[in-house]
Write a structure and sequence with these properties.
The chain contains ten helices and twelve strands. It is 36% helix and 20% strand. The protein is of the alpha/beta class. The protein has two domains: 2-101, Leucine Dehydrogenase, chain A, domain 1 (Rossmann fold); 104-241, Rossmann fold (3-Layer(aba) Sandwich), CATH 3.40.50.720. Helix 1 (17-27) packs across helix 9 (241-256), helix 4 (103-114) packs across helix 5 and helix 4 (103-114) crosses helix 9.
Length: 276
């Protein structure tokens, strides 16, 4: 069986996903391809989906700006993706398009791979910065893991509150409050686009403790300004490209049932990104 996999989104010409999944295919001794299927906002999304439905596909990934839009074209959506209100992975089985979201589990796998001492220690105090789709995925993954002390900080509080919903053990706070309270957290996760290809930090980080784990899901640049500042306060830094790797691993498992070994791939991705 030859696998046919794609990535849809815009812009995606510099995506690392083809390299990652083609490496997965090689490591799993599976035949197949993983290709880009870029859909410009000027094009008809529905027409492009119709084209995909006529092609022979095993599945595809979905990235911005189509993680919500794709949902109306799916036959089924798994519970986690429904909860997150977004799909990043579609598996095609017996002609049915089934949607999943691997962002949250991908983030946790990448975090535990870097800092195994966090696994199972669910009383850690967590701060999530930003309230977009990635924040939603990570929040629900943490809650499912048993974390019960989470705060979400965002410029617009209502967006943070919408992620928290009825969870009485989580709290929405302002970015100013987050900066003031930084010394209280064991894990700080930056999920917004602030710092992507620009030397900016979402908040001032001079209150971070020396034993706090600080994470940024942005991976271009490889080390954001936020992480550079945090590095002056703590040695426990977690880079965004590893989340990309592990959410891809989880997607590959959905498509193939194969638990691919990702050993060394984080360093390879790092070298590729440094060369850009």
């Amino acid at each position: 069986m030859t696998l046919s996999l794609k990535l849809i989104g815009y812009p995606i010409e510099h995506s690392m996903s083809p390299w990652i999944h083609n490496e997965f295919l090689k490591r799993s001794n599976l035949e197949g391809t993983y290709e880009l299927f870029e859909i410009s906002p000027e094009e008809s999304f529905e027409d492009n989906v119709t084209t995909l439905k006529k092609s022979v596909l095993t599945g595809f990934n979905v990235t911005v700006p189509y993680k919500q839009k794709i949902m109306q074209f799916l036959d089924e959506v798994d519970d986690t993706a429904n909860l997150m209100g977004a799909v990043n992975t579609v598996s095609i089985r017996d002609g049915k398009w089934i949607g999943y979201n691997t962002d949250g589990i991908g983030y946790l796998r990448s975090l535990y791979a870097a800092y195994p001492f966090l696994k199972g220690v669910t009383n850690k105090r967590v701060l999530i910065l930003g309230a977009g789709g990635a924040a939603r995925g990570i929040f629900h993954a943490l809650v499912n893991e048993g974390y019960n002390n989470i705060k979400i900080a965002n410029r617009t509080l209502s967006r943070a509150e919408s992620i928290i919903g009825t969870n009485k053990q989580a709290l929405a706070i302002s970015l100013e409050e987050a900066a003031e309270e930084l010394h209280q957290f064991d894990l700080v996760i930056q999920t917004s686009a602030v710092g992507m290809n620009e030397p900016r930090s979402i908040i001032i980080v001079d209150r971070i403790n020396e034993d706090t784990v600080v994470s940024d899901i942005v991976y271009q640049p490889l080390e954001t300004h936020f992480l550079q500042l945090a590095k002056q306060r703590t040695p426990f830094i977690h880079h965004g490209h590893t989340m990309l790797l592990y959410q891809a691993q989880a997607a590959f498992e959905i498509w193939t049932g194969t638990n691919v070994n990702v050993s060394g791939m984080d360093m390879q991705i790092e070298q590729i990104l440094k060369g850009r």
